[in-house]
Design brief:
Layout (H helix, E strand, L loop, with lengths): L3 E2 L30 H4 L11 H14 L10 E7 L11 E6 L2 H5 L6 E4 L15 E7 L8 H11 E11 L2 E2 L6 H4 L3 H15 L6 E4 L11 E6 L3
Parallel strand pairs: 2-3, 2-5, 3-4, 5-6
Antiparallel strand pairs: 1-7, 6-9, 8-9
The structure holds S-adenosylmethionine.
C-alpha cells in the first residue's frame, strides 16, 4: 500500500483553528470506513517517515527524557506502534499498542505489546496512573475517536507525564480522517492541539517543528502536553 502526501486545502468549514469542543459530524469520516483490523492485517515492515524525521522523533524523546528512569521516568506507552518506536535508547519499560501482531512482536524496544483497535474501543486496558509518558508517532490522523483516546491517555499517565504526538505530511489517505486530508501542516498541528484541549487533564500543549525549516525531507512536527497534577 502506497503512502501518499496529504492534500492541502484550507480549514474553512471545520473551524479547527477555534479548537471547537464539538467536531462536525463529517470531521472524522474516512474514505475507507471498513475495519482497521482488515487494513492493517498485512505486515508492513517499512518506515513511514525518512531518516531525518525519524532522528527528530528520537531527539524529541531524549530531550523530554521519555523512558529515562532518572529523568521523566521509565514506563512508556507507545500508541499506534509497529516494529519501530524511534527511541535513541529503549525505555526501561515500553508497552507498544498497535494493530499488527507481527510488527509489534518484532519491535526490539518493546518489553510487551498488544493489539488493540482504538477506533473500536478507545478505552486503554491499563490502570490509572500506570505510565510516566506516552507517545504516538505519525498515526494520530487515523483516530476517529481521538478525544476519548486522549482522555484515556490522561487517565493512564502519572501526574507530570508527557504525551508526545508527532506528525508529518504522509499518510494512508483512505484511512486518514477527512479533516486531516483537507488541511496542511498548520491545520494538522491545530487539530492535535484541539484534541488535547477537548480531552482535558493536560497542561497547555506545546507545538514545534522539529526538523530544520529549510529541510527538503519529511517535516516532523511535535505537539505535546503533560498530565496535570
Ligand atoms: C503510519 S503507521 C506508524 C507506525 C509507528 N508509529 C511508526 O512510527 O512507524 C500507523 C500505525 O497506526 C496503527 N493504527 C492504525 N489504526 C489504528 C487503530 N484503530 N488502533 C490502534 N492502532 C492503529 C497501525 O497499526 C500502524 O502501525
Amino acid at each position: 500500500m502506497a503512502v501518499h502526501n496529504c492534500v492541502e486545502r484550507d480549514l474553512q468549514g471545520w473551524g479547527v483553528t477555534d479548537h471547537p469542543p464539538d467536531h462536525p459530524p463529517d470531521f472524522f469520516d474516512r474514505a475507507d470506513p471498513g475495519p482497521d483490523a482488515q487494513f492493517y492485517a498485512p505486515d508492513r515492515f517499512v518506515t513511514h517517515i525518512d531518516p531525518g524525521a525519524i532522528a527528530a522523533v528520537g531527539a524529541l524523546y531524549e530531550e523530554l527524557g521519555l523512558g529515562d528512569p532518572g529523568r521523566a521516568g521509565g514506563d512508556v506507552l507507545d500508541l499506534m506502534s509497529s516494529w519501530v518506536s524511534h527511541f535513541r535508547v529503549a525505555p526501561a519499560r515500553l508497552v507498544a499498542l498497535g494493530m499488527n501482531a507481527n510488527e509489534l512482536a518484532a519491535n526490539p524496544q518493546a518489553a510487551s505489546w498488544l493489539v488493540h483497535d482504538l477506533n473500536v474501543d478507545p478505552v486503554l486496558p491499563f490502570a490509572d496512573a500506570s505510565f510516566d509518558a506516552a507517545t504516538c508517532c505519525v498515526s494520530v490522523d487515523y483516530l476517529t475517536r481521538p478525544v476519548e483516546v486522549f482522555r484515556e491517555v490522561a487517565r493512564v499517565l502519572r501526574p507530570g507525564g508527557a504525551f508526545a504526538v508527532t506528525i508529518s505530511n504522509r499518510c494512508f489517505p483512505t484511512k486518514a480522517i477527512r479533516a486531516w486530508l483537507h488541511t496542511g501542516d498548520a491545520g494538522h498541528v491545530d487539530i492535535v492541539d484541539g484534541y488535547f484541549r477537548a480531552a482535558g487533564g493536560f497542561t497547555e500543549p506545546v507545538a514545534q517543528l522539529r526538523t530544520p525549516p529549510e529541510s527538503r525531507g519529511d517535516p516532523l512536527w511535535a505537539v505535546w502536553a503533560t498530565r496535570e497534577a
